[in-house]
Structure formats: C-alpha cells, structure tokens
Write a structure and sequence with these properties.
The chain is of the alpha/beta class. Helices cover about 45% and strands about 15% of the residues. Glutamic acid (GLU) binds next to strand 3 and helix 13.
C-alpha cells in the first residue's frame, strides 16, 4: 500500500500535541486499528473492508410503562464483521449508548473473538435507557420489544447476544424466550450468558473476571513480579470487577481498593472481597460500607498499587490522569477503559497494559463454550469449562507477547495485529462475492 493511500499512522497515532477526540470510542478504536494495520502492511482493499461495519440497525422500541404511559426508546444492533462465523456480542442498557459506541464495541468483539481464536464475528447492541428507573416488568417489555425489532438478524448461525452493561441472565432468558416463541420451538443457542437451568454454561458468570485474573497472573510472571504482597485496585464491582477481585484475592494478591458508581473503599492492608460482595447483595452499593476508608472513583485510578483493573466503563483513563497512574500493570476488564491519548502516556511511563480485547475475553470464550454445549445438547462440568478457558487465555496471552516482541510494539498493538491478521486471512481465503 502506498504511503498516500491512507493517512500515516504516525499522524493518526496521537502525538504530544495532537489529541484525538478522546470521548469518541469509535475514533479511539479506529486509531488503534489504523496503527496495527499499517504495521501489518495490510493491503488497501482489505483495509477498507475491515474499517467498515457490515450492518448497522437502529430501531424504535415503544413500550408501555406500568402507569400506562407510552414511551419510545432507541435501540441499536451493529454487526461489525462476520467473516469468521456468527456475530457475537453483548447487549447493554444504558443512557450513554450511542451508535458510535455500539460500532466501537462491535469492532472490539470482532478483534476479541479473533484474538482468542473462537469461530465468531463481532457485534454489539444497546438500548438507550436507564434501567435504575425501570421496574422489572418494564424491563421485560423493553427487552422483548427490542428482540422482536431485530429478530431477523438474530439466530445461532447469524447473531448471538450476551449480557453486557446493565443486562444479565434474566434479560438473556427473555431474549431466548421471545426468539423461541417466534420460531415456534426452543432455541437455546440464540443467546449466551443464560441461566444454567435453561442451557447456560457453568462458569459463564465468572468467566470474564476469571480471565482477568489469569492474564494478570501471566503478566506478573512475565515481569518477574511476586504474587504475595502485590496490591490491586479494581474499578467497578459488577459481575466483572467483583469476580476478578475475588479470584485475585484467592490467588494471593492483596486487593487494596474497589469501587462502584456510588464510590469506593480503600484499605492498604487489603479488603475482604467476600464480605464486600455480601454487603452489596444487602445494600446494593459499596458506598455505605464502613470497615474501610472511602475513596472516589477518580482517586482509585491513581492509588498506590501494582495492578490496576478498570472494570467499569469506557474512557476512564485519559490524558488527564494517565500520568498519575502508579500501577505497573493495567488489566482492562472493561471494554475501552483507556483512551488512545492515554495509551501514549502509559507507554512512555512503561506501564504494562493488558488490553481489553485480551484481558476481558474470558467472557466471550465461555460464551463460545455455552453455544457449543447448547448446539451439541451435551453439558460440561465446571472444571472442564475452567480448564479450557485457562488454556485459551494463557495461549492468547503468549501469542500477544510474541507478536509484540516480534514487531517491537506494545501489547495493545500486538493484540490488534494478531486479531486483524486472523480476520484478514479468512477474507483472503473467502475472496470477494461480487
Ligand atoms: N459483553 C461481553 C463482552 O464485551 C460478552 C460478550 C459475549 O459473551 O458474547 O465481551
């Protein structure tokens, strides 16, 4: 490809005084994609294909509130790339959902599935709403109406949703039921992250957090750092953050800080995660917990620790706070927690960033296992699930290290390169349908 055919990554890659729009996750994703594609010398045609989402759907979701009032919310589903298999990706219910965010998240799913080498493409969906203000029955009506609005693209062979921000097993059960009622028979493999009793996989709920723990363990080993005495701060105490904190504590690490949207708690000697999980079950948020010092979400990111796990939302580590991060390792439990501008600052500081598409890939990996079990109608015990997850996470970590060392790039670029290479290889084999 000629140097003029697309902007040089050196221009795209944020340099000291040329900052990207940090808030736009799609631009952030694209700047990393461009940089990795350039390093791979990806040919011009494939570059254009892989930069474009395959399908973007915007739907209106009308529903009746419990009061009888009618509201209309907006829903999205983006299929970014399906060359390697059915589209795979979560659905989030959140007020901040935008088409650009869903596009970025769908692209990340494409790279993530390719990186851990499972036979899926990438997709993502979302409904713009605030679940905290909705009753259970309202949530169910929204879920069913959104599902029916996108039903043509759903299916075990075409697009398979899963939980994401503010959605859970309950929501997946409603999606599976709505889809199955339309098909006139039960189709368990249309969603993953379902309740175990209706075709869910053992170990799925813990899988993303378990994956974070496994890659953190590998990162410590790689850097020659000990387990004992290593301090961890975890932002986000939902499914990913709380499980990662619990499994890291079990591994022997010291969890010094955790937070949720109500704020956080800090204890330099170590928190007891099971106790905090119990507190959250009883009081919903961490805020009221009295046995440790309070800390804000912003403070948590720059607290004294060796490992930082951002496991909440996008864009929390930015050019404004990246310089103050004390951690030696960042393990990205969330999707897109670090902006492209922050990447450069962290790289200069020598922070070892285990990128989202690797660090949080445990979830979709066990989603793959769930889909396989549903389709085979034969279910595995939890030990088998966890062993197979560990094998994939460790191998993917090693592959990213090898790629990064070979091309002398950071882990994020190495991970993108590995993933883009795999997607591009399938495009080359399949050729172009004209
Ligand atoms: N929402 C999760 C993610 O971002 C899981 C996706 C899935 O299991 O399909 O990776």
């Amino acid at each position: 490809m000629s140097a003029t055919s697309r902007p040089s990554p050196l221009l795209i890659r944020p340099e000291k005084d040329t900052f990207l729009n940090e808030e736009n996750p799609f631009e952030g994703m694209m700047s990393r994609f461009d940089y990795a594609a350039e390093r791979l010398s990806l040919d011009q045609g494939l570059y254009k294909v892989l930069r474009s989402p395959e399908k973007q759907i915007i739907v209106s979701v009308p529903f009746q509130r419990d009061t009888g009032e009618v509201e209309v919310y907006t829903g999205y589903r983006v299929l970014y790339n399906t060359s390697r298999g059915p589209a795979k990706g979560g659905i989030r219910f959140d007020l901040n959902v935008t088409l650009d965010e869903v596009k970025a998240l769908a692209a990340w799913m494409t790279w993530k599935c390719a990186l851990v080498n499972i036979p899926f493409g990438g997709s993502k969906g979302g409904v713009v709403c605030d679940p905290a203000t909705l009753s259970n029955t309202e949530l169910e009506r929204i879920t069913r109406r959104y599902t029916s609005a996108i039903i043509e693209i759903l299916g075990p062979d075409s697009d398979v949703p899963a939980p994401d921000v503010n959605t859970n097993e309950r929501v997946m059960a409603w999606i599976m039921d709505t889809y199955s009622m339309h098909k006139r028979h039960t189709v368990t493999a249309v969603v993953t992250g379902k309740p175990i009793a209706m075709g869910g996989s053992l170990g799925r709920r813990e899988a993303t957090g378990r994956g974070c723990m496994l890659v953190t363990r590998e990162a410590l080993r790689k850097l020659g750092m000990p387990i004992a005495g290593t301090r961890v701060a975890v932002q986000g105490f939902g499914n990913v953050g709380s499980t990662a904190a619990m499994l890291m504590e079990e591994l022997g690490l010291t969890i010094v800080a955790v937070s949720d949207k109500s704020g956080g708690v800090y204890n330099p000697k170590g928190l007891r995660i099971k106790e905090l999980q119990q507190h959250v079950r009883e009081h919903r948020f961490l805020g009221e917990y009295k046995e440790a010092e309070p800390i804000t979400n912003e403070q948590l990111l720059t607290v004294d620790c060796e490992v930082l796990v951002p496991a909440a939302l996008e864009n929390v580590i930015t050019r404004h706070n990246a310089g103050d991060v004390k951690a030696r390792i960042i393990c990205e439990g969330a999707n897109g927690p670090t902006t492209a501008n922050a990447d450069r600052i962290l790289e200069e500081k020598g922070v070892f960033v285990v990128p989202d598409i690797l660090a949080n890939a445990g979830g979709v990996t066990v989603s793959y296992f769930e889909w396989v079990q549903d389709r085979g109608g034969y279910f595995w015990d939890e030990e088998t699930v966890n062993q197979r997850l560990e094998r994939i996470m460790v191998q993917s970590f090693d592959e990213v290290i090898t790629m990064s060392e070979k091309h002398r790039v950071n882990l994020r670029t190495g991970a993108y390169m590995q993933a883009i290479e795999r997607v591009a290889a399938v495009h080359r084999l399949r050729g172009m349908y004209a």
